[in-house]
Prior knowledge:
By secondary structure, this protein is mostly helical. It has helices at residues 2-25, 30-37, 41-53, 69-90; strands spanning 57-60, 63-66. A two-stranded antiparallel sheet has the order 1-2. Helix 1 packs across helix 3 and helix 2 (30-37) crosses helix 3 (41-53). The radius of gyration is 17 Å and the shape is elongated.
Amino acid sequence: MIDRLDKEIDVLTRHLAVFVLVWQAEPIGIVELSDRTDLPHHKVRYSLRVLEEEDLIEPCSAGATTTDHAQQFVETLNDDLASVIDALDDMKISESAGL
């Protein structure tokens, strides 16, 4: 059960790394993203597709660029992650639970 969560965290980490590079170096193409992240092209391509579906990036002739929604995403990301962390903390079973 926790293994699946770990895998999802790894994928989210990859998507965020790709997003940050696009944010910092736009426009940027798959080859450069792959080189700078040390990720295979197919994983970068998948992350770009996910980010595009979330309307955070869009393709252009020179690579990927961020959309108008990217700024709001950046502004709310830390609060959203904090909410997820709080929810995970609430799931912990205390040692005093008698298990």
